[in-house]
Amino acid sequence: MDDHIIKVQTMKGSPYAKAFMDKITSLESWLLQTQEIMDVWQKVQGVWLYLEPIFSSEDIVKQMPTEAGIFKQVDMDWRTTMAAALEAGKAMEATKAPGLLELLQRCNANLDIVQKGLNDYLETKRLAFPRFFFLSNDNLLEILSETKDPTRVNPHMKKAFEGIQSLEFQSADQRITAMMSSEKESVPLVESVDPHAARGNVELWLVQMEAAMLQTIRHVCLSSEKDYLERKFTDWLRNWPGQAVIAIFSLFWTREVEDGLREHGNDGILQVAEKLKGTLGEIIDLVRNDIPALTRCTLEALIVIFVHNKDTVEELCKMGTSMVDDFDWLVQLRYYIEDNPEKPEQQDLFVRITNSHLGYAYEYLGNSSRLIVTPLTDRCYRTCCGALHLLYGAAPEGPAGTGKTETVKDLAKALARFCVVFNCSDELDYLAMAKFFKGLAASGGWACFDEFNRIDAEVLSVIAQQILCIQNAIREKKTHFEFEGTELPIIWTCNCFITMNPGYAGRAELPDNLKALFRTVAMMVPDYAMIAEIKLYSYGYEDSRSLAQKIVTTYKLCSEQLSSQKHYDYGMRAVFAVLVQAGRLKRNNPGQTNESVLMLQSVNDVNLAKFLDFDVPLYNGITRDLFPGVDLPKPDYSMMVGKLTQNLDSTHCQAHPYFIDKIIQFYECHLVRHSVMLVGMPFSGKTTALNTLQKALTQLAQEGLMHAGCAVHQARLNPKSIPARDLYGCFEEVSREWVDGIVAVLFREFARNQTEERKWLVFDGPVDAVWIENMNTVMDENKKLCLNSGEIIAMSPNMRTIIEPMDVEVASPATISRNGMVFFEPHLMGYQHLIDKMIKGSLPQEMDEAERTALSSMVDFLVPPLVSHVQKQCKTVSPVQEQNLVQSFLVLLTTHLESGYKDPSMSRDAVDGKAIVAMVDCYAIWCAIWSFGAVCETNSRSSFSQFLRKLLTGQVDMHKPHKKLQPNLPDRGSVFDYVVDLKQPGWTTWMDTVDAQTIPNSAQVQNIIVQTVDNVRYRYILEHCIRHRIKLLFCGPTGTGKTVYMQQALMAMPKETRRAKLCQA
Questions:
Q1: How far apart, in whole angstroms, are the C-alpha atoms of residue 602 and residue 671?
Q2: What are phi and psi of 647, to 5 degrees?
Q3: Residue range 798-809, pLDDT digits in tens
Q4: Quick check: 442 and 127 in contact, CB under 8 A?
């Protein structure tokens, strides 16, 4: 449109335009008006598309009658306009409809009113139930539209309550009677909630639900405290929710230590230590037995806290602590039941550390795991709690995998606080952050902003003012305050934490006014051995100390002795993956008494897949020294291997032993890690491995032989081919409407599938900081995709993200440590499998067995020496793999044979078998020239030509011809000068295949393309590749005619079959 307006205005300024001035003026007027109409039309269309599904809901219409009425009128006008445009058919007629512009402008103005009303409505609902601030508009509207059936809010519960997966409703009156965690732990509510009493206002019964949750957890904790002394410890812990067990155990641990210190000083805590040792033995014996999954969850989390408390008491004994107010005791996390100063005549649970006095918030956490507490974690707790006491935020910073985010999350669990983890990106602006801060202030929760220094420096300065505003309101003990133009309630427990990886790509320096609001904690390397020992204890291992040392020593020796590769990671996440696999093997092999076997198996399962071939013997040597005499039983994957082989055979692929091993390694890796990278050069079989395993697992699941019912679904995309805004989503610049990206849509679709089916989201393309860093909270233990709209989408069970890059050269350590690695090496499979696949499935059906055998012999004779010569003796135009050379040769050969057999001059009626075999031989030699030889630079082509002639005449040692080749290549010139002639069959020069060129007298010099040998042969190859849909890369220096050759071939094609796009890189 702009182009036409400029052209018309240029014509208008011409001295020859007077005769046509009326027409030009009329056209200009129409173009300007049409441009204005189209601008408004597009705006109306965009907003209508967004609002139409919203106002299709009867519940929303009832709650917003005014806006619904306005929208209904707009909807009628819009549909009438679109129907008229469709009927008119032509733009010039449609845009000249009387009053069209005014109608669209009126629609646009009305839609603005509706949008403003909708935003005000959503803001009202968020203020009524502040946790709605952490949801996107679409999520919130989806919840608010479910007024008739409260059970349909269940899928959204985890977005508002971290620990609640779903609610239990009575079938009769739909009263809420219990809350269910993702671990299937059900906690009955003290007082049931009646959603229908809220008369369709979802936010009102959610507020009641929040109050009921807090009341229930308080009641459970205080009731279990009374029950603690009446039962045996191992019986008591089975009867109460995991959260209450840990809190009340910590309470009694605090009481017993303080009673011991008061009554007997240091000797008193020595007695406590002995008692804890005995109890720990009983708990670990219980873990080793066959117990319900829920009890096992409780025990695994409890043992982590129990062992830390036992070690703390032993440490206090060694340091000679003898008084309750000794500093070494005061710096521990201690639990008390005390009078609540804010609620007279009510006792509550409180947590003290140093001089910080913090309330236990009774947020339901589910039966979740707990972080292993190391001295580093203790220091972080003290700093964070000190910051909370002084009404500041805390900022753990340090390298990847040191536990920054997990420590903040675990502190929130220790204090039973609502905590939202959000992965920051450089696309975040101050408006999106303001929405978050409103939710924090009004709900009293915590937010942990991961990778906070990825946000732009300009936005960080504004965020500093927003945080300061909240902190000042808390200091002034306000109950309401004004924030970003909204009057908000404030709960004083709210706070925010930020975690940072300093020095990584794409990270900004925090402004000074922001630094002043946070206490910094340096998080360096944690105590791996201690973490491993406690985790193994919780899984029921007896020899946990020795095995933990072996894990740490294995990684230490690997980092020292193995080669240095970008994808090797020996950090905390790698250690933790081994521990998770060890726990899984312990549960699956209860009869295995040799724990070293399980541990070696775990170490191998997690690490072997990522090592390069030459590092594997060194790694095996390390594990043999650390686990002497341990022989691993070979796992039985016979059913899976059978299905893999069957699926590979069906596509004529070869079940190479190395390839099968890699598929099994990936399968084992994806059981332990929910984010996996398949790293390797092209032709290493990454995509084929993934697709073959998907088919095999689905077939085994359908037949009920393995993971019954768990079919595998896969969605695949290339992230580098999609702009960042379209990948995850973005806000429209004018309307501020959120538009979902491709990843957001696919991720949400998989997340909605809460079944046990496997869901693989595959990113097939290069890894870089532009897109991968936004996936950090997906790839780590949070398992959530954070969108800039504020929406947080949690992964569903059995969902995996799989990334297929060629290498990880530009990936940050944060990305590498979060992923399991499976490294594929194409040279270990060679290229013979490509040849076998071609012989099996790609040859023309007309070929008889003798001709197939002749071709196979010819390929075996030509390929190895030519691959070796090109790689060692020739200089190539661009880097090529040997598999790429062979694949190019095979594609050219099969397509030429297909054409050759269809040529009338080569029909079996016209020629005998010898002539057909001669054609096959000629095509094999020609295709070798234009695949192996075509990649060589000009200077290397003469060397290639000489070598090929020697090879064909038997002058190359170790590579003698299997027969006398007829007809021979002519001796004159280069092998590149000849092409197959089917008439003989034999060889002819390129210029003999075309007629002599005649240049018309009227031809312009710049349009003349002189017919040369290069022109003829490159045009032939181009036309052949276009005809058979073969991808082609033209390489060469500037000015060698690459573009001209392509344009000439494309322009010679019929117009109806041609659609070309020339791009400049």
A1: 12
A2: -70, -35
A3: 899 999 999 998
A4: yes
Closest C-alpha to 385, from 427, 421, 357: 357
Q: How far apart are CA 588 and CA 377, in angstroms?
A: 31
- C-alpha distances (whole Å) from 938 to each of 876, 948, 1039 are 9, 16, 15
Q: How far is CA 178 from CA 170, 175, 241, 416, 659, in A?
A: 9, 9, 13, 19, 50
- Please report the pLDDT score of residue 506 as a whole number: 59
Helix boundaries (H) for 367-403: 375-389
Burial class of 545 by CB neighbour count within 10 A (0 to 12, 13 to 18, 19+): middle
Token look-up 């062979």 returns 886
Per-residue b or e along 491-516, where b marks 16 or more CB atoms closer than 10 Å to that residue's CB: ebbbbbbbbbbeebeebbebeeebee
Closest listed residue to residue 772, CA positions, set 426, 401, 421, 447 = 426
Contact 581, 602 (CB under 8 A): yes
Q: Domains in the chain and their CATH numbers?
A: 1-128 (1.20.140.100), 152-229 (3.20.180.20), 231-369 (1.20.58.1120), 371-526 (3.40.50.300), 544-626 (1.10.8.710), 637-828 (3.40.50.300), 836-988 (1.10.472.130), 1005-1063 (no CATH)
CA 681, chain centre distance (Å): 21
Question: What DSSP designation does 90 have?
Answer: S
CA 854 to chain centre: 49
SS (H, E, C) 717-736: ECHHHCCHHHHHEEECCCCC
Both tokens of 458, joined, read 């300009």
pLDDT at residue 503, rounded to an integer = 64
β-pair partners for 419: 446
Q: What's the Cα-to-Cα distance from 528 to each of 538, 548, 574, 602, rounded to whole Å?
A: 15, 8, 10, 16
Burial letters for 392-410: b for 16+ Cβ neighbours within 10 Å, e otherwise?
A: bbbbbbbbbbbbbbbbbbb
pTM, two decimal places: 0.84
* pLDDT for residue 217 is more than 60: yes
Residue whose C-alpha is closest to residue 30's, from 119, 122, 93, 115:
93
C-alpha 1048/C-alpha 529 separation (Å) is 68
Q: How far is CA 627 from the centre of its chain?
A: 36
Closest CA relative to residue 855, chosen from 962, 987, 932, 960:
962
Positions of E strands within 37-129 = none
- Quick one: how far is CA 813 from the chain centroid? 16
How many whole angstroms separate alpha carbon 658 and alpha carbon 612?
A: 13
Give residue-wise pLDDT tens across range 81-91: 888 888 887 87
* pLDDT, the chain, mean: 88
Rg (CA), the chain: 36
Are 395 and 449 contacting, i.e. CB atoms less than 8 angstroms apart?
no
Q: Is residue 411's pLDDT more than 70?
A: yes
Region of 923 on the Ramachandran plot (φ > 0 left; ψ -120 to 50 alpha; else beta): alpha
d(CA 423, CA 438): 18
**What string of DSSP letters covers 422-474?**
EE--TT--HHHHHHHHHHHHHHT-EEEEETGGGS-HHHHHHHHHHHHHHHHHH
Closest CA to 640 of 713, 684, 687, 689: 689
Phi then psi dihedrals of residue 545, to 5 deg: -65, -50
